[in-house]
């Protein structure tokens, strides 16, 4: 099969094509004012699996994750504990690195903090002003969305619908849809000099500068949670394309929400379980399997019983592999099992076919479980030689590593 992935912009599965064998991917990371939770973990794991599969196919991946350390939430939280915003966010930047490592996330090449790119943000705003798609007010600098071609296409909203979902209330705006790219602020804390006065960059210009600085003005995949489609990714897309006149990326990928009682798991709702708390009770392969049992684009309703089921499945897979690796001698086995090569070929074809279909881990896991069960049955009946077992274990390890569960 040919790899096809679902693109949020076109709302269809598209054949995956890039220039050569290098894939550049940008992943929206968290705001650094608290520990990451399982909702973040779902997105981290999904894109780690995507990158692992691309590597399996022979691509070289470059994955950049941003980490937002410029925000009102950080400033308020830092003031509450008597720290600077930088000191406060440093703690959660380090915890993010620890959480990714603990989850077995191996494909992120760099985690870039927003504060490291403020000069690039200012330069990008100057580019917007030079092209006449932004304007200066007493409040700061706004993007003039009426002059941005295709604004609303990513979130599939009409101009009238966008007007009902205004991003900031301001008498200085020309249009309801316009949003701040630079916010003039009179406080003395966590602000930067700019041609338009001291202040802070807008939330959406942060990623526009970060992704283009690290991956270029046009790259392959932009990813994040489904809740980021609007306004964040719509705004990032608008700011970059208004300057370059070219698509920001080839494919927009978004993960479904992790929900608790039908509501998004989030810091603001205080209904979250941190990654580090979850990992005190469940191991990383079990969490990865739990997420993989649902297609990455579907919403996932968190239930402890479902996670416990995934733990048992994960344990069964790993115990089976461990059992297969035990040194055994079956005197009755004189040649390789005539069905083993067919079993392996079918397993690989079905597993890879599932992954080629928009990274369908639901089906891929099913195929892995079925193959594990078949090999165990043959092993118990002493139908497999040690060489056969080694071949089966290698196949399980090779494909299981794409999911990070074996």
What does this structure look like?
The chain is α/β, with parallel strands linked by helices and 406 residues long. The protein has 2 domains: 4-135 and 144-159 and 199-280, Rossmann fold; 305-403, Anticodon-binding domain of a subclass of class I aminoacyl-tRNA synthetases (Four Helix Bundle (Hemerythrin (Met), subunit A), Up-down Bundle). The chain contains 13 helices and 14 strands. A 5-stranded parallel beta sheet has the order 5-4-3-10-11, sandwiched between helices. A 4-stranded antiparallel beta sheet has the order 6-7-8-9. Strands 13-12-14 form a 3-stranded mixed beta sheet, covered by helices on one side. α4 (118-130) packs across α6 (203-215) and α9 packs across α10 (304-324). The radius of gyration is 24 Å and the shape is elongated.
Rg is: 24 Å
Beta content comes to 15-25%
Could you estimate the helical fraction of the residues in percent? 40-55%
Provide the spatial order of strands within the biggest beta sheet: 5-4-3-10-11
Structural class: alpha/beta
- Spans of 5+ residues with little confidence (pLDDT < 50)? none
Level-1 CATH class name of the largest domain: Alpha Beta
Number of domains: 2
CATH superfamily of the largest domain: HUPs
The total count of helices amounts to 13
Major sheet description: 5 strands, parallel
Q: Per CATH, what is the topology of the largest domain?
A: Rossmann fold
Number of strands: 14
Q: Give the rounded overall mean pLDDT.
A: 93
Shape: elongated
The CATH architecture of the largest domain can be given as 3-Layer(aba) Sandwich
Spatial gap, N to C terminus: 24 Å
